[in-house]
Structures are given as structure tokens and as C-alpha cells.
User: What shape does this take?
Amino acid sequence: MKAATRLRSTLRVRTMLAWARLRRLTRNKNLRAVGAAIATLVLLTSLRAYDPRIVTELKERTFDTYQRLKPRAYTDLPVRIVDIDEASISEYGQWPWPRTRLAALTRRLADLGAGVIAYDVIFSEPDRTTPSRLVDDLRDSSASDLDQTMKLLANLPDHDQAFADAIGKTGVVLGFAATRAANDNRPPGRAGVAFVGVNPTKVLAPFHGTVSSLPIFNEKAAGIGGINLSSLDRGGIVRRVPMVFSDGVSIYPSLAIEALRVAQNQKSIIVRGTGASGDSNTGHDALIDMRVGAFKLPLTSNGESRIYFSRDRPQGYVSVKDILDPAKEATVKPLIDGTIVLVGASAAGLMDSRATPLGGPVPGVAIQAQLIEQILAQDFIERPDWTNGLEIVLTVLFGALVAGLVLTFGARFSFYAGVVGFVAGLAGSWIAFSQFRLLIDPIFPSLAALAVYIAVERVLHVASDREKKFVRQAFGQYLAPELLTQLENSPQGMRLGGESRDISVMFMDVRGFTPISEALTATELVDFINTLLAPLSDAIQDELGTIDKYIGDSIMAFWNAPVDVSDHATRACQAALKMRAALGALNDADVFGFSARGFDDSRVKIGVGINAGLACVGNMGSQRRFNYSAMGDVVNVAARIESASKALNVDLLVSEDVARRVKGIALLEAGEILFKGKSRPTKIYAIAGDDTMAGSPEFAELKRQHGALLNAIKTGEGPEATVALARCQELAGEDMQDFYHRLAEQITSLHAT
Assistant: This one.
């Protein structure tokens, strides 16, 4: 009794240690996965907050795609481009043209009714064809009529002055280019700039110099604005254009803003920044928007405006050649009258083309025109400062959600859920753009979620491999492959630890093994055992049995541990039938060679005993080597049933507990046996066949005759027993004939008495 108690205690301790190790593996796996998710999120969130160029470019490419899918709708707004195109160059010669021609162009546009004329050209050098320049060139000449020639040229009008006069008589806006190269060239300011909130000079990056038109032109201009186009993105794509410039002291509007101001006869513009009344404090200085007369436009924090591009259309262009052609006045006047005219170049040789999100180069002047058009249409795309915070929050939320889904529902479900989430995020971002003109990036949060998914799944995969290795080491030698795979995939479902479980136990032993072992050499005996036990073991594992151990020529196996097998009693019986069939095939083929060698009994026989009930199961052994096994009375009875099979001349025997549980198994009562240590005899049954036999009319008749046979033997009625025996032998299969021969001996004893 004490020894059994100590063994049970040792079993419980060993199994608890194994279970604790597995729990540690599972717990550590989840902790490592959570750690990987947190580390990945911290890294990616920091990357998003820092917003390096590659991240910015990724966002901008997404927004470019949105614009290509839904560009700004084209409407015929009062904005025209007077184009220095290839036809004009062919007509009037190479650029730059004489300023007298530009003066004529300016006067002509005024006559056609242009509301304002903005030149997207900088006139930074004197006209090389002006007569005063020719006089200087002729001073070194030795021509005899030099004095007369110089007097004639001096009386001719100055080309630059002619252009300046034309500028002064019409509403003309000239441009300047801000540069990083330091110089003292500052154009005069024409627009008054008022600001509300932060002073724009604290926000705008100061320029150090400019390239501007000659003072003779600037003094006559109604407005002067910057023509710089931001091309800081990779590929030189223009997406944003500065609306205001600063040298650190003064503030200058852009060419487009000046054109709008002059067209409305406004004296000033208003720039609003953080700190203005009614605006929340964002914690940093930034610009918000600006107003030009009746029009308001949003600004980025550094004073730029995002351009919502429409398709570049020929309707917006009028060739200089057509403007200067008197014969086409009736055609061009309706196009120019009352419009904001931007004069610029599309001729390829003038190198003034820029890339846009819609693809393909467009003239720089067309971008200025699109700016004015979207201000007139009040159709802007915006990316407020709060979108950065929103995207950082979405990055964290998406990553945390994916990590939680992977840990809770596994990789496959999480992947599909992630795809759905990505589509939903993309749809939300598209709706924000198409309906509200807001630019919200769905790509980086989605990529962050994907990175978290990969990190967590990778950690779980590595940890699962460790769990599978542990499970395979602990159970690989004696567990059915299907159950082993199930344990590998769901090790947390194992129930270890020396617990009581309802199981079915099988013992198998080879009959007449001693004579066989004496007739074979050691090598032949090993080959015999391996050849025999391999198919018998396969039969057990095919029915989800756990092989406990091999004991010489015997096998111990059980069902319903460590993984649940609901129909374990039936599966144990089906395994026994498969073992019977496998052994019959081996004998028929004389695989062991006993018939060829002339053995008296060439057919190998086995005995199988099966019992069901509560047993204590768990890992038993030392820390270095242990075995998952079962112990208890149910195991002992199964072993004794197997031993009884020899005396009863039947190969497959089961207990009454098994007989009550099984379905689809043909069973015949084999009597009662009083096992040592038991106060009551145990009823046992022989397995006659499978479900096909159990459902046949022949078996029903066999079962009836078998009952009559047992009753006749019990009551001592020899003649009735003889009749029933003959009928049973006729109906029973070959596998049951030895069993009925044994019962025939009992009937002979009845006749003898």
C-alpha cells in the first residue's frame, strides 16, 4: 500500500513538472509576442513621428493616386494663359524678344479687356536690342559716318522704357525668384500684408536673395510676387506652392496671390496663424490660412498651398501669335475680356516644364493658373496638422489590434481580418478625400499593422516550434500521429499531471512466444518482433490509440489520454479487429517464414484484452527520462483479460464495461472469470466482428444460438448444448472456431457426467 502511494505521488510530481514546463513555454511565448508587438510599434511610431523623406514620399504617392482617380473638375473660370508657344517662337524669332514686342503684347491684352496681366517671366537684364546698347557698341568703331549713325540711334525710343511705359499704363504683376544665394536685390513690396496671430516672419524660412526684374519695370508694376514652385519631392513633382515669402523682415505674396489682389483692386492681404483669437494653441507656430479680398485659402503650416489639379486642357491657352494677330481679334477677345491673364512659356526650348501628380510635364505658368483657379472655385485639398496625430494614433491602434487578433484568434483569421481592415481604412481615406477633400494616409498605419503581424507571428512560430519539439520529445514515441499533430497544434489543450481519466486499456501478447524464441536466433527473433509489432502498432495508432510501452512480445496501449477521444472504447475494439486482420495477412503470406521452415504450427497467434474505466495517467519517470503511462485497477484487469484469452481459445476479449460502451461491434459473451483479488467474477466478451457483421441477420441468429449454448452449459443440459454448438459453429467465422472448440470440451464433460 505504501509503495503504491509513493508511486502515485511520484507520478503526480513528474506530470506536474512536465505540465508546468509546457505552461511556461506557452506563457513565455505570449509574453515574447507582446514584447515584439510593443517594440515594433514603438519603432514604427517613432519613425512616423520623425516622418523621414521615404515616409513622406509614400504618403504623397498615395495622395497623387487619389488626384489621378478624381482630379479637380474643370470649369471655365476667368483665367487664361497667354502662351509663348512654338508657333509664337516660329513667328517672332527666338526668345527673349525685344521689349517693344512685349510692350505691344501688354497693350494688346489691355485693349482686349484683360483684368490683370501677370508675367511668369523675370526681366532681370536690359534688352540687348535697345538702341542705347547699340550706341555703346559703336563707340569703338572707326566708321566715317559714326557720328551721324549715333545721332540717329539716340533719337530712337528705348525698348525697356517702352515696355515700362506699357506696364505702368495697365495692371501688370511681375515676378521674382527667391534664392539661397545672398544679395541685396529686394523687390519693392506692392501689397500690404496684415497678419493675425503669429508673425509669419517667425514661421517662414527666410530667403537670402532674389532674382527680380529691372527696377525700371518693378517701379511701374501694380504688383510683384514670387514665382517659386516647391519641387522638394523626389522626381520634382510639384504638389505645394509657397503663397507667401519672407526675407526675415518683410513679407511678399506669390505671383498668383498678387494677380488676385490686383484683379480685385485690393491694397493688402491677411495672413492668419496660430495664436489668433478663437484658435486653439497647438504648441508650435504655424500658419493657417490667408485672405485675398473676397477669397480665402488654407495654408500649410509653412505657408504653402496644396494644389488640387485638374486636367491640363487646351481651352485655357491662347497663343501670343493669335493675340498679336489683328485678324483674330474677334476670336481672342471673348477669351481675354475680364480675365486674369498669365503670360508664360510652353515652348520646349525654354525649359519651363514641371511634373504634377496627374503625370506628364506641364508649363510652370499652368501651375500658377491652377492655383488661381482653385482659389476662385474655392475647391481645395487640405492636410491639417491634426492628420499627423490621427495617423500616429491609427498606427498604434491598428498595430495593437492586429497583435491582439493574432494572439487571440491565430494568424490565419488575423490575416483576413487585417485585409478587411486595410480595405476599410483605404475606403475611409478615399471618402475623406473624395467627399471632404482631406488627405489622410491609410498606407503607413496598414504597413505598421503588417509589420506587427509579421513580428508577432514570427515569434509565435518560433515558440510553437519549441512547443512542438517538447511535445514530440514527450509523446512522439508512443502517441498516434494524428494525436501528436493535434497536440503540436494545440499543446495548451493537453491535460497532464497525474489525473484520473476514463480510458480504454489494451494489452496484446503473442501466444506460444517461448517456442518461437527457442527456434530462432537472436537476430531472427528481433526481425520477427519488429515485423510483427509494426503493423499491430499501426492498427492501434490508426484508431488514435496511445502506445504506452512494448514489453518484449507484448504491447500496452490506451485511449482518451492525453487528448480526448470520445468513442475510445469502440476505437479500441476496432484497433483489435485491425490487428486480427493484419496478423491474418502476415500468416497467409508466410511473412515470418514459419511454414517454409516446416514449423508444426506455422501461424502466429495473439491474445488481446481490453478494459475501460478510471485510471491515473501522466508522465512517470525521472526528469531526464519519463514515460506517459496509465496505472490503476482498470489496467490490471485489462492485463488479466488478455491472459484469460489463452484459456478461452479466443484472440480478442473485452470486459463488460467495454461491452456496454461500444457501438457497431459484434460481441459474444465468453463467460465470467474471478480474477485474483476480486470478490466478484468479471463478465467478459469475445469480439466476433465489426459493424457489418453486427448488423447482419446471420449474427443475430448466431447471438441467439450462442445464448442458448451458454444457458445449456450453465444448466447442464448436454443434448441442447450440442445442438446449439453445432449451429454456432456453422454460423461463426473462422476466427471464432477455436473458441467453440473450447466450449465443445465443456459439453463433453457434461455428457461424461
The two ends are 45 Å apart (CA to CA). The chain has 25 helices and 25 strands. The mean pLDDT is 86.
